[in-house]
Amino acid sequence: MDALCGSGELGSKFWDSNLSVHTDNPDFTPCFQNSVLAWVPCIYLWAALPCYLFCLQHRHQGYIVLSRLSRLKTALGVLLWCVSWTDLFYSFHGLVHGWAPAPIFFVTPLVVGVTMLLATLLIQYERLQGVRSSGVLIIFWFLCVVCGIIPFRSKILSALAQGKISDPFRFTTFYIYFALVLSALILSCFREKPPFFSPKNIDPNPCPEAGAGFLSRLSFWWFTKLAILGYRRPLEEWDLWCLNKEDRSHVVVQRLLQERKKQQEQAARHQAAEASGKRLSSEGEVLLGGRPQAREPPFLRALMATFGSSFLLSMCFKLIQDLLSFINPQLLSVLIRFISNPTAPTWWGFLVAGLMFVCSVMQTLILHQYYHCIFVMGLRFRTGIIGVIYRKALVITNSVKRESTVGEIVNLMSVDAQRFMDVVPFINLLWSAPLQIILAVYFLWQNLGPSVLAGVALMVLLIPLNGAVAVKMRAFQVEQMKFKDSRIKLMSEILGGIKVLKLYAWEPSFLKQVEDIRQDELRLMRQAAYLHATSTFIWICTPFLVTLTTLGMYVSVDKNNVLDAEKAFVSVSLFNILKIPLNMLPQLISNLAQTSVSLKRIQHFLSQDELDSQCVERKTITPGYTVTIHNGTFTWSQNLPPTLHSLDIQVPKGALVAVVGPVGCGKSSLLSALLGEMEKLEGKVYMKGSVAYVPQQAWIQNCTLQENVLFGQALDPKRYRQALEACALLADLEVLPGGGKTEIGEKGINLSGGQRQRVSLARAVYSDADIFLLDDPLSAVDSHVAKHIFDQVIGPEGVLAGKTRVLVTHGISFLPQTDFVIVLADGQVSEIGTYAALLQRNGSFANFLRNYAPALEDREDEEVLLIEDTLSNHTDLTDNEPVTYEVQKQFMRQLSAMSLEGEGQGRPVSRRRLGAAEKVVQATEAKASQVLTQEEKVEMGTVKLSVFWDYARAVGLCATLVICLLHGGQSAAAIGANVWLSAWTGEAVVNGQQNNTSQRLGVYAALGILQGLLVMLSAVTMAVGGVQAARLLHQALLHNKMRSPQSFFDTTPSGRILNRFSKDICIIDEVLAPTILMLLNSFYNSISTLVVIVASTPLFAVVILPLAVLYLFVQRLYVATSRQLKRLESVSRSPIYSHFLETVTGSSVIRAYGRSQDFEAISDAKVDTNQRSCYPYIASNRWLGVRVEFVGNCVVLFTALFAVIGRSSLSPGLVGLSVSYALQVTLALNWMIRTISDLESNIVAVERVKEYSKTETEAPWVVEGSRPPAGWPLQGEVEFRNYSVRYRPGLELVLKDLSLQVRGGEKVGIVGRTGAGKSSMTLCLFRILEAAEGDILIDGLNVADIGLHDLRSQLTIIPQDPILFSGTLRMNLDPFGNYSEEDMWRALEQSHLHTFVSSQPAGLDFQCSEGGENLSVGQRQLVCLARALLRKSRILVLDEATAAIDLETDDLIQATIHTQFEACTVLTIAHRLNTIMDYTRVLVLDKGTIAEFDSPTNLIAARGIFYGMARDAGLA
Questions:
Q1: Which of 1170, 1196, 1007, 1265 is nearest to 421 (CA)?
Q2: What is the tens place of the pLDDT at every residue in 1360-1400?
Q3: For 1400, what's the count of Cα atoms within 13 Å in the CB-facing half-sphere?
Q4: pLDDT reported for residue 229
Q5: Do residues 659 and 806 lie in contact, with contact meaning Cβ atoms separated by under 8 Å?
Q6: What's the mean pLDDT when you consider all of the chain?
Q7: Rounded to an integer, what distance in angstroms lies between the CA atom of residue 58 and that of residue 42?
Q8: What is the pLDDT of residue 893?
């Protein structure tokens, strides 16, 4: 190098330590300045070039128009190039004129000139590639300026010293160069305009990150605006940014699916190759082995292939950060040496302090880029997994659905996908932890020699111990998941069937079941918590024990080994670095273990059988037919016997086919087989054309009525109106609060059964498909409505005339109008033919008909009347479910207004005249859509202190206090140990030895062990307290929900209540206690750091205040924003799962209508909404981290600076102590804010659980002072006295001033148009609705005076919807175990289930699946009958119980009721009037009042309302 710089006047040596190091006024030689300092930026730019060009080629975003900024930058670049070349030519000029300059004056201008040209070209290339702010160039200009500062100072100093400028030309060009470089740096910090031709950003609120400059991205400044907004007012959903394109669901999921498909194809090819290889080797074995199962490629591989690139980037960041973390201990070592050496020049100390600061800042910036990269990747993982699971759930077979409950599938989405998101940030530790350990051990070896091995050995020994604890924790976790799954499953069933539980007074039995599961769950939690405490003890003690054994070994191996400050504190700071990977490894192991469980569950689910899309042939078919089955045999699952066998059916185009047969003969299964929902064992199914499907139990979405009917198609007002009119829904629109815009609750909760069925039918009519599969749509509606629907929709004159219709029905009256009838029996076609042909054939069908069919006479003249009737009175307001009755009021007002205007006599017809097509649509839009389901409240602002107080009380106040004190003690012990170490290092050395090392070592050890014990004690106390809190909070929530009135469940979606039981209770169980421990840990750490630094360098107290102000300011901004983001995230999470639940239950309808893709898009949109709050939350953590760590880095800087300033009064030991503490403070400060905020966001779970534990409850179950006498009611007399009732306060009365008396043993039928208050009357009897005024007396006892269970357990109801719970049949009949085996069999015999149950291998222990799905609706109804027979109470209520049953079964039930309940009082809400014609009396309700009440014969004679209804049904 010296040769390069030449000799003579301008020549100089390359390096001169006397000039640069050992002096109070340091400087570099001119040669060094001209070579190294000039080359550093150039070397950087050329080194970065290849990677940068590669990246630029792959991200083309449209070019940026040449702006003023760009022109200026380019001009500066060109000028810099000119300046360098001027220098070069000046050197040549010198050469020509005989004074030869040193070679360096040729080399440097050439290198710099070429590099400046490169920079100028890069500026233009970036512009063409659409880069708005270039990090590479900013760093380049920054290096140029930094390297220019030294010559800048040194040229001025030398000119001043010599009194003249030695080389005026180069002096001038250098300052021009410096000014230009500085300008270039300033300009490069501004960003360009958005690219031209880039896809227009149509997002209303795009994410500012995409357009942020390099520095803004580096420091996360782009987030500041949102942080300030969140501080000023709680954030709302519309404040959140749209997602970046590459984070959106449809993009991420598509990438993942393509990758999976690619791998599946590879696996299939690989397998085919293997199979062919095997076949050659062993022909025989293959024959025996059966067909090989296709193996699914590992899902993990697909994930890694999809997200690998961002993973590599994160690895680069992590690597740089790991290496940087080892620089500070080395600098600390230099600093301590500097303090120990009084002769060293002061600027050394300042330089070291400055370097420490710079190094820390770089570490901070890189670490947070790494975290941002990795957390966003975690977010994409979750998005991808949810999307893939959702798509899979749409195509799984029914047998898979039966094996795994809906709850379990939802868990895959909520818990397992989340697990992946949580584990991703730790994944890099797999290679980073070993790297950090190796580096730390290497530096320690240099410091302490072989004694390090003692410490390392101890660490290695502790790893298996940690591993064992982690494995045990994982085992607990798996078991706990099982209990949690079963508890949530049971809760979701309870919420689904809560009405039935209330009617039967079965709550205590189910309460006990939940509490038993919870007991097991808590037992495991307690064990896991103790384990956790042990592992905490190990991890607090590990670093300490390692330091202890190493230092102990070091001083005892050789008497001459002296422990000085440098050795001790550099080792301590290295051990602190070592502590992190060692603590993380066990956590990583347990996290990976949990994730592997989740991965297996997801993998298992994804490899399940899918429905065979080729099962139904859609392309070809015999001409003239639309549906044909050849020799079809179908089963619900491979391991069950076939449900349908050898079917041969052909349906001509445009025919109306009825399918009839007894309960359970496979009518619904036939439709499922046509839809491809069943597994086809043999035969062929052909179906040509689009399909509309109306299932037996209507599937209604949680959206508006109009959206339910349109089902994703565009609104055509005329067609929409026609569909509503045909399905008799217009009258309902009049009554519903928002007309067609009324929001319908989950599962159609605010519609009656009939309305739901008609909406489902309207959806089919509107779809305008070619083939209509109708599964008994007429059973859920009144007989006159059924007739209307048949005539207007299904029948030969209906809207669907000319379409192919397959109708499963129990209504005989419609059969003559069908084209032909298929009679099924035991899964086979027993007869097939036209109605007339079947009657002549005199088969079983004909006999059946003769017994049941009423005289079918011609009633043309009554048609008109019927339609008027249907449209006027059929306002189908739900009785048994709430709807705002404001509307009815309004409706009456409209009517009276019309009659006043003289538009007829206010007859219903006039209402029809008003109803022209546009009116419906206008009305729909005009009526304010009154929402039934209240939006879930998002709590605003700070979490109230009362919530923390609630939790502290649940943990136990003493326990809380003890925990805090123990932590304080632990910090004191830790400080004590380190101060002791500092004193030890400062001890005088006599003859090259320190004397009382053993005493020093002993005290140090004692303090360390004490620290570990205190932590363990506090963890154990927290564990006990946490489990107790979890128990109390869940218990309060459960008991309150079991006692909530029915109205609460009608207005609150079950998903929301379930969320409290799953997500929130899960947080209380598993998250809160560890978070609190972490908070205490970091809080005491930060405090002890400040105490130590201030004690050793009191000057530090001056900067504490400004730093604390900055810290608190950032903390306030962050906590307000992040808390609200977390809340928005948890509110936007439930819709994902609600929609998923809805999809899983309605998947057959979604598939039938071919709407799978639309639903995937809806799900993606819901996930995106959720991610929109996750993404800023992640960014907020990074924003906070950069700012808080800056505060921490300032602490390091000032500690070092003040140590340098006060070096005369400080011992090296104290400096070592305070700086090694300062190096840790960053982490503690960061964790403190993070855990405070985590605690705030998680304690919200307590708030939410508390909110639902304090809702209003119904009356007490048992009133001790007034229990009814034993054997009550003896007579079964029921009396209503001036009784009125409303659904909820503020609504209209549903029953008005009802007075009637039913004598014991009477059979009373209750009839009336829908909405007359029939079901309400029965609900009042059970006190599901409480009286507004008046009383109900049973045997003279006022029911309002006794406990609800005393009342409900003495009445029996067969409800409208037969609800079964998953469990044994025995449990479904008698959950309390009150009845003997004989009683049950007798009840089954009487309810005609005996043959079915005895044919099952398990008998009474036959497992009913969730909701009783594995029984037909009819069989479920019979189970309800069996329950009633078991109870044998004096009063029996039948609520439209026979609507879903074929006539034979209906007859059986009626006969059973006649014989078995002969002495009882029976109240029947009737749809089919023939069932009540032989009753003692009939009560006709109209608009909540008694219209007629007398015996059927008298009422018919009176020719009133009842007569009209009987005539419609052909009974009068």
A1: 1170
A2: 778 888 888 889 898 888 889 898 998 998 888 888 888 88
A3: 15
A4: 93
A5: yes
A6: 84
A7: 25
A8: 35
∠ CA 1185-1186-1191, rounded to 5°: 95
Q: Which is it for strands 1435-1439 and 1355-1358: parallel, antiparallel or unpaired?
A: parallel
| Interatomic CA distance for residues 431 and 241, integer angstroms | 35
Instruction: Report how far residue 1135's alpha carbon sits from residue 630's, in angstroms, rounded to the nearest whole number.
Output: 43
Write the pLDDT tens digit of every residue in 1039-1083: 999 999 988 888 888 888 888 898 889 999 888 888 888 898 889
Q: Alpha carbon of 597 to those of 420, 920, 970: distances in Å?
A: 11, 54, 36
Residue indicated by tokens 């509490």: 515
Q: What DSSP string describes 434-486?
A: HHHHHHHHHHHHHHHGGGHHHHHHHHHHHHHHHHHHHHHHHHHHHHHHHHHHH
Task: Say yes or no to pLDDT of 665 above 90.
Answer: no
pLDDT-wise least confident of 190-199, 302-311, 725-734: 190-199
* 219 — pLDDT class (breaks 50, 70, 90): very high
What does DSSP say about strands 820-825 and 828-833: parallel, antiparallel, or unpaired? antiparallel
Query: Distance between CA atoms of 1329 and 1331, rounded to whole angstroms?
Result: 7
What is the rounded distance in angstroms from the CA atom of residue 540 to the CA atom of residue 537? Answer: 5
- What's residue 1231's pLDDT? 82
Angle at 1174 between CA 1171 and CA 1176, to 5 degrees: 115
Give the C-alpha separation, 80 to 74, whole Å. 10
Report which residue type is found at 1120.
A
HSE-CB for 1162 with a 13 A CA cutoff: 19
CA torsion sign, 796 to 800 to 804 to 807? negative
454-473: pLDDT as tens digits: 888 887 788 788 778 878 88
Burial 924-933 (b: 16+ CB within 10 A, else e): beebebbebb
Sheet holding 625-635, edge to edge: 616-617, 679-687, 625-635, 644-652
Interacting residues of 1174 by C-beta distance below 8 A, sequence separation 6+: 379, 1129
Please give, one letter per residue, the 3-state secondary structure of 351-405: HHHHHHHHHHHHHHHHHHHHHHHHHHHHHHHHHHHHHHHHHHHCCECHHHHHHCC
CA separation for the pair 1221, 1213 (Å, rounded):
12
CA atoms within 13 A on the CB side of 1509: 28
| Separation CA 609–CA 628 (nearest Å) | 26
Nearest-angstrom CA–CA distance, 729 and 723 = 8
Position 287 scores a pLDDT of 37
Q: Are 1355 and 1466 a contacting pair, CB within 8 Å?
A: no
Helix 135-162 with 104-129: angle, nearest 10 deg: 150
Contact (Cβ atoms closer than 8 angstroms) between residue 618 and residue 674: no
| β-sheet bridge partners, residue 1300 | 1280
Tokens in use for 911?
Answer: 């209402």
Selection from 1135, 1142, 934, 936 nearest residue 1047 by Cα: 934
> Which residue from 449, 527, 205 is spatially nearest to 1172, judged by alpha carbons?
205
CA distance 766 to 726: 10
Give whole-number Cα distances, 598 to 420, 480, 955, 1066, in Å: 8, 14, 31, 17
- Asked whether residue 347 carries a pLDDT value surpassing 80, the answer given is yes
Q: Where are the alpha helices (DSSP H) in 1374-1470?
A: 1381-1390, 1394-1399, 1417-1431, 1447-1460
Rounded alpha-carbon distances, angstroms, from residue 1498 to 1484, 1502, 1507:
13, 6, 10
In the Cβ-directed half-sphere of 1105, how many Cα atoms lie within 13 Å? 3
pLDDT more than 70, % of the chain: 91
- Helix spans in 505-564 (H): 507-557
The two three-digit tokens of residue 1383, written as one number: 């009683």
